[in-house]
Design brief:
CATH architecture of the largest domain: Alpha-Beta Complex
Number of domains: 2
Number of strands: 26
Structural class: alpha+beta
Number of helices: 10
Shape: globular
C-alpha cells in the first residue's frame, strides 16, 4: 500500500453498524475518531464514533488483545490525555482492532451491546488542554485581514519567513454546542475620539482546523520539521471567535488579548492523523519570488506530503431562521490545502526556541481562506468589515454576528478510491452580553 496506508483505509470495508455505510456519513468505519461522552448513567469516558453510534471502548476491553486491550482499558476515563500516553502505535493497534471488530466480516457477535446512540449522550471536551496556540497559516486570510487594517501594507515582511502565531487562552476552550456570551471589551470606532468599554459590536467567526499534541518534547529540545508530524495525535474543527472592534484597537503592539480569549469552540471528535493518511498531498506551492523557508522549516518529505486536502465549511442559523424552520445557510467553503505553512512547520517553529509542548496542547491553524471570495473564512473578509452585509433567506442581513446567531462548521476529506472522512460539527450560539 501507499505510504501511511493500511487495511483500515480499505474503501471496500463495511460495518455491521448500518449508518456507518451511508455514503455521506462523517463517521465511516475508515474514520473511527475518538471523543469523550457522558452517558445518562455513569461518568464520562472515551468512545469511538461509528455512524450515528458511539462504541464504548473501555466496556468492550475484553474484546481486544495485546496493546489494543491495554489501551481500551485506559479509555474508561473522562479525557484522552491518559490513554494518549501509550503512544501512536497503541492507538494504531486499537484502530485496526476496531476496524476488524466492527466490520461486516466479523459480524455482531454480541458487540451491539457496546453501541450507544450518539443522540442520547452528551459529548464533552475530549482533552484536558494545557495550552492553546493559534497560528496565522493562510496567506490569503493574512493578506485580506491586513488590507482591512493596513491598506498600504497588508502583509508584514515576517509572514513569508516564519509561521506567525499567538498564545491563546486554554481555559476558555469550549466544546461544540456550548453557548457563550457576547464579550465586553474596549472599543474605538473610526469616528470616535476616545475608546469606550462595552459589548463587542463586531463579532466574527474564524474557520480553522485544530490539532492536538500527542508526544511532548523536553524543554530546550526543538522538534525537527521532519519529525514534527509524529507529535500530532489528531485533528478537530476550531472556531477562534473574534471581537473585531476590540481586537483592532488592542492588538498593537503585543497582539490579541480580550478580542480573542473569551471563547474558542472545538468539535468533540478527534480524527486521528492515521485516518487522514489518504488525504495527504503536497504542501502549498509558494509563488515564484517568495523566499524559501528558513532551514529549520525546510524538509523535502514535508513539502512532498505535508499538505492535507480537507474541505471546511461555515454556515449560519439565526434565531429568526430557527423559528421559521429555515435550514442553515452556508457562508463559505474553503480547503486546508491552501495554507501557506504545513502543520509540521508550525510545530517545528513553535519549538524552535526550545519551547516544550505538552500532551493535549491545542494548536489552531488560523483562519483558512482561499484566493476566491467564496472561500474566505471570516465575516471580516466576506462582508468587507461589515460594509457589505450578506443577505439571508429570512430577509435578514449580516455584516457581523448578532445575538442568538449560531455558527456551524463542518469538515470532510474525500477523493476517488477512498471512503469519506468527516469531522462532525463544531457549532455554538452567541448569547447577549450580561
Amino acid at each position: 500500500m501507499a505510504q501511511g496506508l493500511n487495511e483500515t483505509h480499505d474503501p471496500a470495508r463495511r460495518s455491521f453498524v448500518e449508518s456507518a455505510n451511508a455514503p455521506d456519513t462523517d463517521f465511516s468505519i475508515q474514520n473511527l475518531p475518538f471523543g469523550v461522552f457522558k452517558p445518562e448513567i455513569g461518568t464520562p469516558r472515551v468512545g469511538v464514533a461509528i455512524g450515528d453510534q458511539i462504541f464504548d471502548v473501555s466496556a468492550a476491553a475484553k474484546s481486544f488483545d495485546g496493546p489494543a486491550a491495554e489501551l481500551a482499558r485506559d479509555c474508561g476515563i473522562s479525557y484522552l490525555n491518559i490513554p494518549m500516553q501509550r503512544g501512536a502505535a497503541a492507538f494504531s493497534a486499537l484502530r485496526l482492532a476496531l476496524s476488524r471488530l466492527l466490520s461486516v466480516e466479523h459480524g455482531d457477535r454480541g458487540l451491539r451491546k457496546y453501541l450507544i446512540p450518539m443522540a442520547s449522550v452528551q459529548l464533552v471536551k475530549p482533552m484536558t488542554i494545557p495550552n492553546f496556540t493559534d497560528f496565522y497559516a493562510s496567506v490569503f486570510h493574512a493578506t485580506n485581514t491586513g488590507r482591512a487594517f493596513r491598506p498600504d501594507n497588508p502583509l508584514l515582511p515576517n509572514y513569508k519567513y516564519v509561521p506567525v502565531a499567538y498564545h491563546g487562552r486554554a481555559s476558555s476552550v469550549i466544546v461544540s454546542g456550548t453557548p457563550f456570551k457576547r464579550p465586553r471589551g474596549q472599543r474605538k470606532g473610526a469616528n470616535e475620539a476616545v475608546p469606550s468599554y462595552g459589548p463587542s459590536r463586531n463579532m466574527d467567526f474564524e474557520l480553522e482546523l485544530g490539532m492536538y499534541i500527542d508526544t511532548p518534547n523536553k524543554l530546550g529540545e526543538p522538534i525537527p520539521v521532519a519529525k514534527a508530524a509524529e507529535h500530532i495525535f489528531g485533528f478537530c474543527l476550531l472556531n477562534d471567535w473574534s471581537a473585531r472592534d476590540v481586537q483592532a484597537w488592542e492588538y498593537q503592539p503585543l497582539g490579541p488579548f480580550l478580542g480573542k480569549n473569551f471563547a474558542t469552540t472545538v468539535s468533540p471528535w478527534v480524527v486521528t492523523a492515521e485516518a487522514l493518511a489518504p488525504f495527504r498531498i503536497a504542501a502549498f506551492a509558494r509563488p515564484s519570488g517568495d523566499p524559501a523557508p528558513l532551514p529549520h522549516l525546510s524538509d523535502a518529505e514535508d513539502q512532498a506530503h505535508g499538505g492535507l486536502d480537507i474541505t471546511l465549511e461555515a454556515s449560519i442559523l439565526t434565531e429568526a431562521m430557527r423559528r421559521a424552520g429555515i435550514a442553515p445557510q452556508r457562508l463559505t467553503q474553503t480547503n486546508f490545502s491552501k495554507v501557506y505553512w504545513t502543520v509540521a512547520q508550525m510545530i517545528a517553529h513553535h519549538t524552535s526556541n526550545g519551547c516544550d509542548l505538552m500532551r493535549g496542547d491545542l494548536i489552531g491553524s488560523g483562519t483558512i481562506s482561499g484566493p476566491e471570495k467564496s472561500s474566505w473564512g471570516s465575516l471580516l473578509e466576506l462582508t468587507a468589515r461589515g460594509s457589505e452585509p450578506i443577505a439571508l433567506p429570512s430577509g435578514e442581513k449580516r455584516g457581523f454576528i448578532e445575538d442568538g446567531d449560531e455558527i456551524i462548521f463542518r469538515g470532510f476529506a474525500e477523493k476517488p478510491g477512498f471512503a469519506r472522512i468527516g469531522f462532525g460539527e463544531c457549532r455554538a450560539i452567541m448569547l447577549p452580553a450580561d
